[in-house]
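Protein 1 of 2
SEQ + STRUCT:
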Amino acid sequence: MIAVIQRVSKASVRIKGHITGEIGHGLMVLLGVEEADSREDIEWLSRKIANLRIFGDDNGVMNRSLIEVGGEVLLISQFTLHASTKKGNRPSYIKAARPETAIPLYESFIQKLGTELGKEIQTGEFGADMKVSLTNDGPVTIIIDTKDKK
């Protein structure tokens, strides 16, 4: 799994003109699922996101986690995170999981992260044409790949 995590002061997703997910202070997470992903990736990544210390403490130092600040999450599926651009100019998405694999993993990730945080995760819709808006706070943007845990 690949996650692009952005600390936000607000974020929302629209599908066909209607807001389907919206948050205030928290994290906007783009999630790409690949065929090789498993329950272990879900467990590791959800724990990492919930405990990632990227929110300011009383001294303005990034030392507090999403759990500690009571932040929200907007989670958006995005297969294009697995784009390979090594050959030619048209990206290849061969590593991205097919829907029959990706959807159950995506849904399990939503549930696991919600459990880690003790709150509902806001989402878009898997495979839909979505319009995502956000105000990146910082800006802080972090990329995590569960296949590179070094």
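Protein 2 of 2
SEQ + STRUCT:
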Amino acid sequence: MWALLIPLAGIAMPVGIVWIVFYYDNRTKEQFNATLQKLIESGQELSPELLESVPGYKAGKGKDKDDIRSGLITSGVGIGIALFGHFGAEEQALFGIGLLVLSIGVGILAYGIYSKNKKGDDLS
């Protein structure tokens, strides 16, 4: 009985988490669109301040990524996996996977530092 529930939970849990995230994101978008439609029907002028006050407004979110922060987090995860693979687990593959994740994090970090310096050069 339990042997069947563990694989089912392993499949159902990620699917459920993804469904919850998409459901609430879609619901927020629908609420924003409904409110925006009511504002248009009432004939109000849509100023940026008015749009920002509407619940669910997302201007530019996701565009302003912090690559340095992402690189540091990914590098930390890679170091953790590598250390776990080296000291905690019997699997040597985890050490290699940790080094792979670490190298991805270092790449993101290097890109973040490079692009931040490049933006600073463009402004002067």
